[in-house]
Design a protein that fits this description.
The structure is a homodimer.
Chain A (H helix, E strand, L loop, with lengths): L2 E6 L7 H16 L3 E6 L5 H12 L5 H8 L1 H16 L4 E4 L6 E3 L8 E4 L2 H8 L3 E5 L2 E4 L5 E3 L4 H12 L4 E6 L20 E2 L1 H9 L7 H10 L3 E5 L7 E3 L15 E5 L2 E10 L4 H11 L7 E3 L8 E9 H18 L3 E5 L2 E7 L9 H11 L6 E5 L2 E7 L3 H11 L18
Parallel strand pairs in A: 1-2, 1-9, 2-6, 3-6, 4-7, 9-11, 10-12
Antiparallel strand pairs in A: 4-5, 7-8, 11-12, 13-18, 14-16, 14-17, 15-16, 18-20, 19-20
């Protein structure tokens, strides 16, 4: 009976009833003989409400102070959760990120964990107590200021603590039953995945699956921490994310799932002189503007003109900044025009097994073709194929591909308990 | 131009507008050439709302976790205030009680400050920044746990920081214009006091004046920190609380003011055997129950019976516990009965000058008599006379005494800006 780290998201602790329900689940785990460390997010909409308040006093709040403000959210939920556990007759102590030894760099609002020194957590466990830790927050190594980890930060806190404490498993509780072969809100016959490897999970997350963020999966892969994604509203086994044991006991699926993402926009740089260094100048300009790009596609240039087109996708929220950055270098690079399109969607097929199954790409494109979906961009990795289509075609495309690869369940089993999957 | 510590209460920072107004006032002080340290309470009703939440999950929340919960309140207000100041073009940094070096004992919910080590505040000031510090909270020396200072804690934080930083003045901003000769809600002609010594202010606070709590005044007296109590809603000079300079430049009023208090109840122990040690046994029983008693009165015993009555007052909230504690020892001590009365009020006349003016007591009782107010208990100190009356007589008694000592203003000058004076 080893140490279990459990992480509960904001929708699981949205009100007093939710907190009491989570407390009972934690106590059950403790009574089963485990040491228990719990990572908790802020209650329900607390973080959004605090951001609203900040914007009322300052349109662009200072990063250090925004972190100080937002970390009040987990302080509230973790203290209430510790009280609720004590009410059930068990000892619990809450710890801030700083008290739990979550040491980060100094980049406010999106700090990275650089060390975890959980001495106080270890002491609490040795005393037989349950430790409740604030997710999403840490303290900077250099300035001793409070930091936050950005989107998905609480999941990363949980995995990082699990690694530092040598936990048996990191359980991520959410409002769905696990990771599905496609978004259950789009594909009624999506199936819950029982087991999935880190690589496949990482590609699914990067391709738009919302259940786990890539950052947290990366951390778990690096330290080989098994993650169990499961629902806090049911007692069901969820999805195990872990590497196949030596010897390969874990069955290797050809395809793990279909992910989609409609949060990106497409930028096309038209008429780029086809000579060495031009692409580099384009992407240097975009990178200097701090924009994260996703897919990049360049075709062969037309022989008649010596010009080529380069397309890339980036989050819609950063699209206009990308255009502005490129307009500044248009004259120097000498491309003809810029096109911006935010009515696109991306569909990705992920599976480590596709390495050894050459027919996968053909089946994927046939399915899209039969569904009448036009493909605008294509990008592949060793275990993923992604295409960009019109945004309005995304749902039909996901369903067609899901069916074509035999992923459909016999029943409509997917259950969404509410919330947005975060 | 020295260092100024300013403290703003919850009603001054109740919403975004309040925070912006306070930010402008802080910037004005900075621009006048002062170093500025600001201590801030939680916004408006935040603390009460958090206590409500706690009670929803646990009727008697654990002290450590309640402190963790409540300290989220100042975290929110101080971060927002720092943002609002930056919006006005000045540099500000917020600090938790722990970061500000407020070291306390380990008594959760009513910790006492045992040291202040404001190294980070000093560094922020040296960089030319404005430091915003969370009131009401600290960190325990032994366990490094978060603590809160209990009622009036933010005022105490401000005075303690002012002492540790050798401030020129500690300004306490509230929703009234200063300390008045009586509660302006009871006496329309109450006058604002321009200057008052620490001893008088301490007696007024102990006697029920709500503007400053005794604990904060005691701290200021010990370290000789001048306090300036003033309104955050007006630009007026308020009340200076400080000792007369050597040589006595400060005019010594005979009477500083009239305080009243209707928050206490009276307990009478009837028929106590009049022999040594009986009173001690009674008050030991009450003290062991953790009850703070205020006035104690014992009259001479009736010669015929050898029995006496002992009365004391204590907060109404603790009255029933006092009765329960005494009932447990009734048989051992052998008193006849207990009487409990929560329909009482206390009126106190305070003034260091009364030492040298023997007519004060007579004038006080004459004023009460002429107002038809019956006196039930009397208690005096060197610079205070207090009486207990019926609760319904308190307002008339305060007005009569205020007039009798010539404290009435020529005009109805007292202005209350809203809130409860805290």
């Amino acid at each position: 009976m080893g140490l279990v780290v459990q992480k509960y998201g904001g929708s699981s602790v949205a009100d007093a009833e939710g907190i009491k329900r989570v407390a009972r689940r934690i106590v059950d785990t403790k009574q089963a003989g485990h040491e228990v460390v719990v990572v908790v997010s802020a209650m329900g909409d607390t973080t959004d409400e605090l951001i609203d308040l900040a914007e009322q006093v300052s349109p662009y709040p200072a990063g250090r102070e925004l972190d100080m403000l937002l970390t009040a959210g987990e302080r509230i939920s973790m203290a209430l959760l510790a009280m609720a556990i004590k009410e059930l007759g068990h000892q619990a102590q809450s710890f801030t990120g700083s008290q739990a030894g979550v040491i980060t760099d100094s980049v406010h609002n999106k700090a990275r964990i650089i060390d975890v020194t959980p001495g106080r957590i270890r002491t609490a466990l040795d005393l037989g107590n349950i430790a409740i830790v604030a997710g999403f927050q840490g303290v900077s190594q250099d300035t001793k200021d409070i930091t936050t980890l950005g989107r998905g930060g609480s999941d990363t806190t949980a995995v990082a603590l699990a690694a530092a404490l040598d936990a048996e498993v990191c359980e991520i509780y959410t409002d769905v039953d696990g990771v599905f072969t496609a978004d259950p809100r789009v594909v009624k016959k999506a199936r819950k995945i029982d087991q999935i490897g880190f690589d496949d999970m990482l590609e699914l997350a990067a391709a738009g699956s919302k259940v786990l963020l890539a950052r947290c999966v990366e951390y778990a892969r690096r330290y080989n921490i098994p993650i169990h994604v499961r629902s806090s509203f049911s007692g069901l086994t969820g999805t195990w994310v872990r590497n196949a044991p030596e010897g390969g006991e874990m069955e290797q699926a050809i395809i793990s799932g279909v992910a989609h993402d409609t949060s990106e926009a497409k930028v096309t740089v038209v008429g780029v002189p086809d000579k060495p260094g031009e692409a580099a100048r384009i992407f240097r300009a975009v990178a200097d503007a701090g924009i994260n790009i996703d897919m990049v596609v360049q075709n062969v240039s037309a022989a008649s003109t010596g010009l080529t087109d380069i397309s890339f996708t980036a989050p819609k929220t950063e699209g206009h900044r990308a255009i502005a950055a490129l307009e500044q270098v248009q004259e120097g690079i000498g491309f003809e025009a810029l096109r911006y399109d935010d009515q696109i969607g991306k569909i990705s097929l992920v599976g480590a097994g596709m390495r050894s199954h050459p027919g996968v790409t053909a089946t994927f494109f046939e399915a899209l073709s039969q569904a009448g979906v036009n493909i605008e961009l294509i990008s592949t990795s060793e275990i993923r194929i992604s295409v960009v289509t019109r945004a309005e075609d995304v749902n039909a495309a996901v369903q067609a591909v899901h069916t074509a690869f035999g992923l459909d369940s016999d029943t409509d089993e997917a259950v969404v308990y509410g919330g947005t999957g975060r």
